[in-house]
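Quiz preparation item.
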């Protein structure tokens, strides 16, 4: 879609900007001249917001910048954070005049208005000292909770609230992430201390820490709130676009938007602008029928598109619905790139393949197969999911499930193969009891409501034998869903999504890791890899090489064990060398992996002890802090391979493990067995 190449569409946007800019200027003059109405600031803020969105759609960054600054200024006026000031009023009027001039005939570009507003807003203009309302009140609540030494000190929050300054967005993002981590760590620390103190001491401890916990949570909520925006950020330019495309297509279309005040991370909402536009265009051009066709089908003359935003805890749910003819599945099945024997799941997934389209004749806005492919790409990049339901009688609904925040996301922790695994809650649609009557097709399909979903047990997906599932997790993916059986329960918590380092990046089935607080990490499963493994009936079953992992860090053990388990190994973790030496698994392993820097007995000492006991098992040293001399010491003590985690390329760790296991000279015997052989 290239709006700047279509003069009619550009003129439609310019026309609305001109109308709203004129009203914006009128309200600015009324405020300057004392002709105040209660709704002036709210109306001006709304007009500036729409102009900002229209200008951004037209890729007119200077125009969007003026409108954005006016929007924030009017928002401050509406909340009472900014009192009347002649210099500020003149700057608001000048900036509004600059907007009008930019869309006049002929257009004029005058930066004086914007420069004046920037100078006043960021300068020394005296604002009202009256306490603001709304979200800023939370800052005062936080300040009141802090000790004041009996009135000897006072808070400085009012001073800071009266200032506006430019900040480095990248540094601010890192600050929010750090605050999120502090919240998780504080919660984990308090939980651990309460558990260790038991019922007798927990009461006093809980009372002593409740204030700290409340303050840390409130601090995070405020920081995350500063990154948020209302969902109207996504829809502020859709009205004009719908009217234009409907008019060109000869269709009548009414658009309804619900939940525009639902808040989410601004970055996520910005990324959704283009996908939502593509979904709306698809609804008009592929779904909504011509008026004559709708009347013949006993439908209202005007088609309807409804966009609904909703917040479900940590998940932002967006539905784009139309009451049109639905997806022409027969047309999808006839496409050259679709296999004739494709089932409903494969047909739905085909919609999101780049270059795929059911359009008979491509238009300027659709038919090239780029729209839904872009939706899938953006949603996957945000760790979200897309679902499509469609029928000739009910139209089409596309549901997007995305995290509401980037800094902290909902995580579903599940267990299988003796390990913990995590999934983003955006992927979890439902958790139901694994009852026999829900399974069909010899256990390969699972009935969930009106849907029949592909099914596999998570233990089977991970390369092990099928294990009885107590519950089934229904997952959303790109286009279709998937049912996964789990052995234990599911726990919903909050975590911080992290990318895997180079040593684990590219490992099968893993997409990253979730920090749960207190240094605890859980490996994140990749839904696409799970779906591929389930579709291929997973892997050939056979003996799984046993790998022993020694690391004093619980998080490191978890991630290493998860990566190796997903790669087809049977993993046994140990917290230290002494625990390993006392365990019989030592003599039955295909490989031992040990950290270098550990308390009590370090990696080099462990290797020496193993070799002195006659353990002839390949040993790999994997460390994040080892010097060259320490790595050489490890090799001299008997390690077969030693490297630093940060020095590995993508996927190199698992490949190195596979090579060591494959090149092993043969299964070692226990030293006691060797002594018995020698005595015969």
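Solution:
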């Amino acid at each position: 879609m290239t709006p700047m190449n279509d003069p009619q569409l550009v003129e439609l946007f310019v026309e609305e900007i001109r109308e709203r800019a004129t009203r914006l200027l009128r309200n600015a003059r009324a405020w300057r001249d004392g002709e105040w109405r209660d709704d002036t600031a709210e109306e001006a803020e709304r007009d500036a917001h729409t102009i900002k969105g229209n200008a951004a759609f037209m890729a007119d960054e200077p125009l969007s910048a003026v409108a954005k600054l006016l929007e924030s200024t009017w928002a401050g006026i509406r909340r009472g954070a900014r009192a009347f000031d002649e210099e500020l009023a003149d700057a608001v009027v000048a900036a509004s005049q600059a907007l009008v001039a930019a869309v006049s005939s002929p257009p004029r570009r005058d930066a004086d208005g914007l420069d004046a507003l920037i100078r006043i807003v960021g300068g020394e203009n005296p604002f009202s000292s009256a306490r603001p309302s709304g979200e800023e009140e939370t800052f005062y609540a936080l300040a009141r909770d802090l000790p004041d030494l009996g009135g000897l000190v006072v808070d400085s929050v009012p001073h800071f609230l009266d200032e506006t300054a430019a900040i480095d967005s990248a540094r601010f993002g890192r600050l929010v992430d750090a605050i999120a981590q502090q919240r998780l760590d504080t919660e984990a620390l308090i939980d651990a201390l309460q558990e260790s103190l038991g019922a007798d001491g927990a009461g006093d401890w809980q009372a002593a820490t409740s204030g700290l916990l409340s303050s840390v949570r409130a601090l995070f909520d405020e920081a995350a709130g500063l990154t948020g925006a209302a969902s109207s950020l996504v829809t502020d330019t859709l009205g004009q676009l719908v009217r234009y495309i409907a008019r060109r297509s000869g269709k009548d279309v009414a658009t309804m938007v619900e939940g525009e005040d639902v808040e989410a991370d601004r970055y996520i909402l910005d990324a959704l602008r283009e996908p939502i536009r593509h979904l709306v265009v698809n609804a008009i051009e592929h779904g909504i029928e011509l008026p004559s066709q709708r009347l013949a089908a006993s439908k209202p003359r005007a088609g309807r598109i409804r966009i609904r935003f909703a917040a479900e805890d940590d998940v932002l749910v967006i539905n784009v619905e139309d009451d049109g003819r639905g997806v022409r599945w027969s047309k999808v099945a006839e496409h050259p790139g679709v296999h004739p024997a494709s089932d409903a799941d494969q047909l739905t997934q085909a919609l999101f393949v780049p270059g795929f389209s059911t359009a008979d004749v491509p238009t300027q806005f659709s038919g090239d197969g780029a729209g839904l492919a872009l939706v899938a790409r953006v949603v996957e990049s945000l760790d979200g999911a897309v679902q499509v339901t469609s029928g000739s009688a009910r139209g089409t609904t596309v549901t997007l499930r995305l995290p509401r925040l980037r800094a902290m996301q909902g995580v579903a922790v599940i267990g299988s193969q003796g390990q913990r695994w995590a999934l983003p809650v955006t992927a979890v649609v439902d958790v139901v009891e694994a009852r026999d009557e829900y399974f069909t097709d010899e256990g390969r399909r699972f009935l969930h409501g009106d849907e029949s979903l592909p099914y596999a047990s998570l233990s089977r997906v991970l390369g092990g034998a099928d294990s009885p599932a107590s519950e089934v997790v229904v997952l959303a993916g790109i286009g279709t869903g998937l049912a996964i059986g789990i052995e234990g329960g599911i726990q919903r918590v909050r975590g911080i999504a992290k990318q895997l380092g180079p040593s684990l990046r590219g490992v099968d089935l893993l997409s990253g890791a979730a920090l749960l607080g207190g240094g605890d990490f859980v490996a994140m499963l990749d839904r696409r890899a799970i779906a591929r493994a389930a579709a291929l009936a997973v892997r050939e079953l056979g003996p799984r090489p046993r790998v022993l992992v020694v690391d004093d860090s619980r998080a490191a053990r978890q991630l290493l064990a998860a990566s190796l388990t997903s790669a087809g190994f049977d993993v046994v973790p140990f917290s230290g060398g002494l625990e390993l030496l006392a365990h019989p698994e030592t003599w039955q392993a295909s490989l031992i992996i040990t950290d270098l820097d550990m308390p009590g007995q370090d990696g080099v000492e462990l290797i020496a002890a193993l070799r002195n006991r006659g353990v002839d098992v390949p040993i790999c040293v994997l460390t994040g802090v080892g010097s060259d001399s320490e790595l050489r010491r490890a090799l001299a003590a008997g390690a077969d391979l030693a490297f630093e985690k940060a020095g590995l390329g993508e996927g190199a760790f698992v490949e190195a493990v596979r090579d060591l296991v494959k090149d092993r000279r043969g299964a070692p015997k226990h030293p006691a067995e060797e002594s018995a052989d020698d005595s015969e």
